[in-house]
Give the backbone structure.
Amino acid sequence: MRTTRFAAAMALLALAVAACGGASSAVKGGDSSAFEITKDTAPAKGAVDTVTWSLYAEPQSLDYAYAFDYHPNTVLANVCEQLMRITPELKVEPGLAAAAANPDPRRWVYTIRDGVKFHDGSTLTADDVVASMRRHMDPKVGSYWVSVYQNVDKIEKTGPMEVTVHLKRPDQLFNEEMGTSAGTIESADSLAEEGYGTPDVGVDCTGPFSFESWQKGQSITFKKFADYWDKALEPKVNTLKMVFIPDPAARVNAMLAGEVDGGYLLPPPGFAKLRTAGSGTLYFGPNTTAVNLIPTDLKGTLGDVKVRRALSMALDRDGIIKAAAGGAGAPAKAPGALGAWGIAPEAGKGHHDKLPALTRDVEGAKKLIQEAGASGKKVVMATSTLSPDIGVIANAVQSAGQAIGLNVELKAVAPEAYTALFSDPKAREGVDLVMTIWYDSTPDPLEFYGILRTGDFANYGGYSNPEYDALVDEANAQADPAARAATVAKLQEIAVRDMVWIPLYEPPHNMFLNKRLTGAPTGISQLVYPWAARLGSAG
């Protein structure tokens, strides 16, 4: 589930401040319990031979074109690299592109970094960049990142180490998205190999760790890449083993026992034990995430905005935060997280403060349901054992629906099928509502609000509003971050007014790290930044 992390106190600005300043800050969760937001762990003091890291699920593939979720990106962030790099401070800087230029509104020109080696020993060229980028535009590939390329006319090699992207219309967000899987560069030869990205073949990239082996259903192992180009991120770990532990309780117990060294996205019911663990430390870090309900069928019962608004009004957000997030979160005002306003954090806070609080009003919600003529109508919501919070939130929604006269029916979906709800329209047939933990990979709020444009891959409910679409295009043409933020604020107001997604809460990111280790970033950047390259000995 691009169940795309976790917030606090003054909404998510505390996270943005911590990210920029490098300090820890105390915040209050939904149950009034304080916790610390910490940007980074202390720098590593030395090398370690092996690190074992836990994932909540096994990636279906290591093909970057399908890396649209937490677990594959947690893996690929250490193995593959992008044209641009998004740092733990949520800044965009050069990556495999030594420079990026925007000589006119309809061109991005990338100068490819010299001397970069792929894991097979071959050298990165402009041809590899062109082949990697064009795959997203190939309908036969079916890339989950195709929307990033919707404004692209053509991609061509314009010099021995230069690639030019020609646009149909101005697209400022495109360059920022080159720091995500949309900008991942692979060896062109490996992309042509049958079975690329599978357990038997693996991948051939340029990152600090190289693919070693994949034991299906158990683990993926990586080795330190001796010829890695960026000496500032030279790994201190020789072998990195990522193990799949889908059972939430088992993940927590493995960390408490020291059987694994750490993990991101831990189950909230385990927070209390992990806070007091003698084996390591539970961290909360900067985030760009909001938890939402996505109406996936706007032709059904939820097609009436009054019904969507009524369901929102009936929800007990404080209770949901306490039960589903272990108290680590704050009620959301908008579907896009405040922590994702990295291009203009002060402006983001100002626009956020003006939004109305989503307060609980069951009686008012009942009246809206009656006005809409929706009393007794059915809403089907997906639920799953993939993560404990999914079931908790589904039950809360069912209870809220019952209180206002809606018949919310829960449809159980297998863990491996829940992710498909966000990538396959057929999987959403017969489903009206899904819960998502949605993150932005870039520090630009347009990344989220842009997906609600007509026809976007992630516009799951088929929302369509010409005024909204025009504002998306306007924002994407604005190179000045402040001007773009002001336009995105208008998009935010429309999304809230039309209740396109139903906001629940904003949580901080979380990570557990064994006391023998340090160095890993605590925040959301771990999905696009080589976090394991900074891991090392704590003593």
In short: The domain at 80-191 is CATH 3.90.76.10 (Dipeptide-binding Protein; domain 1). The chain has three domains: 42-58+68-78+207-284+511-537, 80-191, 289-506. The CA atoms of residues 281 and 374 lie 49 Å apart.
